[in-house]
Amino acid sequence: MTLAPASIPSPPIEWSSFTVGPFTFHVYALIIVVGMIVAMIWTNRRMVARGAEPWVVIDIVIPTVILGLLGARLYHVFTHPADYFYEGAEWWRVFAIWEGGNAIIGALIGGAIGAYFACRFKGIRFLSFADALAPGLLLAQAIGRLGNWFNHELFGWPTDLPWGLEILSTNPAVPEGLPAGTLFHPTFLYELLWNLLGVAVILILERMFRMRWGKTIAVYLIWYGLGRMAIESIRVDYSEVILGMRSNVFGALVMVVIGVVLFIVQTRKHKEPELSVYGDGHVWTETEAEDDKQKSVESKADADEDSTDEVPNDEESSDEDPKGDTPAGADDAPEQASATKATD
After folding, report:
1. How many CA atoms lie within 13 A of 331 on its CB side?
2. pLDDT < 70 stretches in the chain
3. Residue 158, beta-bridge partner list
4. How many CB atoms lie within 10 A of CB 189?
5. Over the stretch 212-234, which tens digit does the pLDDT of each residue have?
6. Predicted local distance difference test score (pLDDT) of residue 310
7. Rounded Cα–Cα distance for residues 266 and 250 (Å)
8. CB 205 within 8 A of CB 211
């Protein structure tokens, strides 16, 4: 009797979505939302500990998420054009993010743009926010990779390792000519574990060296970029090639370079400890909140007072002489008319 080789089964494709009444929920999208919420809550705690107003992160997260999702989808579509632009293709699938295909590199580009302008508006240093976000972002990415498992995507070369991933031969990403029952590297799982390890590394380095001023997000870029380069290199799905590298390998390499340069520059530029995430260096306190509340009350009171100012009496404001029919100042009329004519 031959024992079947150990493997990681893929969930039934029917599990990728479910219906509640008239609504259809896609597990991939729900998992991404869970990751976002976890990252936001953790980032808020880290921001408050660094002197930020509680939940100011919401004002930053909203544009970050919107532009991040847009960037993620556009980057994926542009680096996998053959999946969306061919004869008979349904054009609307370009926007079907629930089917998978959201590139983290594109999300980082779009999200960074949204976060930068939101931070400028709130008076928060962008790199300080990015530092607070870094471990939560890696954790959210790890959670999000579970969505790839439900979608039967992000797998690598064939393997006979015990943790090989079972994928249906009908999957469009499976290379032709492979025998039935072929197992594949679970690259989604590799990245999930790499990201979780990265969270631990960042927290340890922060505790040891008190990294601020953009150095934590620099470590994130280096860590994630290196792991993504290795994991991406063994994937079997199609991708555009840039300078002889898969597009995502090239993008990950750029992340590493940016991270190294950012870490070196910020280390040399900032020797002093970072005391606040705000550009002016102030720290939010309960007293500041009370001051803002008092200013709001005073402004409202001033507005109410202005609206109830006494309106002048018509009789008192009249130019007519109450004792006669001649308007007051009538004797001056000729001179005023001449003056008016001169200024015309």
Report:
1. 1
2. 1-5, 98, 100, 286-344
3. 184
4. 19
5. 999 999 999 999 999 999 999 99
6. 52
7. 24
8. yes
Residues 300 and 292 sit within 8 Å (Cβ to Cβ): no
Measured over all CA atoms, what is the biggest interatomic distance in the chain, rounded to whole angstroms? 126
Burial of 271 (0-12, 13-18, 19+ CB in 10 A): exposed
Domain limits, the chain:
13-287
Tell me which H or E stretch contains 23. Answer: strand 23-26
Per-residue confidence (pLDDT) for residue 296, from 0 to 100: 55
pLDDT tens across 11-40, in order? 998 998 889 989 988 999 899 999 999 999
Residue with token string 């954790």: 139
Residue reference for tokens 């039934």: 12
Residue pointed to by tokens 């509640």: 20
| Cα end-to-end span (Å), the chain | 112
SS3 category, 56: coil
Per-position DSSP letters for 59-111, written without gaps between them: HHHHHHHHHHHHHHHHHHHHH-GGGTSSTT--GGGGG-GGGS---HHHHHHHH
Q: Is 235 annotated as a binding residue?
A: no
The answer to whether residues 8 and 186 touch, using CB atoms and an 8 Å cutoff, is yes
Q: What is the pTM of this model?
A: 0.79
| Other beta carbons less than 10 A from residue 50's beta carbon | 20
Q: 339: which 2 tokens?
A: 């003056």
Residue 157's Cβ-side half-sphere holds a number of Cα atoms within 13 Å equal to 8
